[in-house]
What does this fold into?
Amino acid sequence: MEWWQIGLIILAFIGAGILIGVLVSYLFERFVRKPEAATAAEEQRKSTAGVLVSYLFGRFVKKPEATPAARARKEAKLAAKVMAKREAEEAGRAREAEARARKEAKLAAKEIAKREAEEAEGAREAEARARKEAKLAAKEIAKREAEEAKVMAKREAEEAKVMAKREAEEAKGAREAEAMAKKEEELAAKVMAKVEAEEAKVTAKVEAEEAEGAKEAVVEEQLKFTAASLLAEVENNHRIATEPLTDKLLPFQSDAWGAHQYEVNKLPTNLRDDLEQVYTDISMANSIVWVSTEFNRRTQSLDTHYRQLCTSIAERLDRIKPLIERLGK
It folds into this structure.
């Protein structure tokens, strides 16, 4: 039971006792005592009731005057309440600041994730562009090679036509000469015709042998000159093919091959085939160098293809170099 409930019960008992006493005094004075005695008793009763009411009022109703210790306790309680309120406000502000910080961190994380996604998308687009450029470059290389092959085939066809025409003209001239000789033989004497024919045959044979020797000498000189030019270019390309791969891809040389491409047809078959194959690889390697230089892009696939071509070029040049050296002697 609480203290205030006990106090109410005490007050109820006291009030009931007072009412009972007042009622008993009234009845006693009304029916038993004389009026004079009743007046004195009434005054005494009033005095006693007033004292009792004053005591009860002062004890339970009127608040006692505050002492310094009570005031100090009260001020301490008020100060504690103020401090608690301030701490609660500061805690609330701290929670709000922490919530704002968390919200800003989430926004920053979302922004970072968005930027990373954009960068990844840009990287994928750049890789796609690089692949597209590589495909375009490969198509361009294939197109150029096809055009070059077409031009070469056309030139060879034209040369074959010219050679066939010359042979036909020579055959026609030979037939005409033979017809005239036969006619002269019929008109001239058999002996003179036979002698002249023999002398003509001997003279023609000597001239043919001299022309063939001169032709072989010219061809040999041309082959020596071609072999010397190709040997210098082969040595330089062999050095480029065997050097370690650096930040800059080195182009191969093909000037001597382009300048003496028609004389190459007179070279031995195995040497000619190796030269054609190695300069095809050189053309592909130079195309890769051109793509890397023009577009300023280097990829792992281009480097790998270039390295493989360098290995193939070096192996073929190792076989070609001794043959060209023997040809140039």
About this structure: Residues 42 and 300 are 125 Å apart (CA to CA). The two ends are 133 Å apart (CA to CA). The longest helix spans residues 68-187.
